[in-house]
Structures are given as structure tokens and as C-alpha cells.
Amino acid sequence: MANFAKNEKCPTSADLLAFQLGDMEIESGSHVREHLAACEFCAAELAFYRRYPMDLEEELTEPEAIPEPLYQLAEALLQHNAAPGSFSQLLKGRR
Predict the structure, then answer these.
(1) d(CA 75, CA 87)
(2) CB 10, CB 43: distance < 8 Å
(3) If you write DSSP's letter for every residue of 38-61 in order, what string do you get?
(4) Phi/psi-derived region of residue 17, left when phi > 0, alpha when psi is between -120 and 50, beta in every other case
(5) Alpha-carbon span 87 to 24, nearest angstrom
(6) Which sign does the torsion angle of CA 3, 5, 7, 9 carry?
(7) Residues 6+ apart with CB under 8 A from 72
(8) Is the pLDDT confidence value at 47 over 80?
(9) In this structure, are residues 56 and 23 in contact, taking their beta carbons and an 8 Å threshold?
């Protein structure tokens, strides 16, 4: 379960959705089927699409990058060993 993540060999979410809906060429579908036999993550994603059907007409987009100031704020909040006052210093720098 430690490697339960999508990697560069995995089909895209759009490809998995097309496979689920039967909107994929036979050769591509064969590759996806073989991949699903070995990849628990993609199999789980496909099970999600079965449980919560989607439409290919819906646009699948990649999430946008977090704006740098928000990313820095999140990092400051999440660091367990943050120096005292680092949060205050971060806020002062953004005014």
C-alpha cells in the first residue's frame, strides 16, 4: 500500500473514464486492461468511476498550482518544528 499512487506509466484519468464508458479503441483498451491488473491505484480510480459515473463531456482539468504566498503560509502552519514567530514574520512580509 506504500506505493498507492498514480505514476508516469498510469493511464490518465480521462483515459480511464473513456475505458469505463467504452469510448476507447480496442488496442488502447487492451493496454488499460493489462495495466489495471497490476495497478491497484488505477483499479480503485476505475471503481470510483463505476460508483460515481461521469460524462466525458465534463472537462477534466489539472488542479492549478497553489499561489506562492498561500503555499508559504501552509508550509509555516504545517511545520512541526517551526521557529517561534515564523508565522508572524511571514504575515509581516505580506502586508
Answers:
(1) 10
(2) no
(3) H-HHHHHHHHHHHHS---TTSPP-
(4) alpha
(5) 50
(6) positive
(7) 90
(8) yes
(9) yes
CB 32 within 8 A of CB 39: no
Reported as a single tens digit per residue, the pLDDT across 57-91 is 555 566 677 788 887 877 777 774 455 565 566 56
What is residue 91's predicted lDDT score, i.e. its pLDDT?
Answer: 60
CA separation for the pair 35, 42 (Å, rounded):
8
Residue 13: name the closest of 44, 51, 37, 66 by CA: 44
**Roughly how many angstroms between the first and final C-alpha of the chain, as a whole number?**
44
Rounded CA-CA distance 80/61 in Å is 33
Mean pLDDT of the chain: 78
For the stretch 83-94, pLDDT in tens is 556 556 656 655
- Grid cell in block for residue 42: 488505477
**Domain extent listing, the chain:** 1-61, 63-95
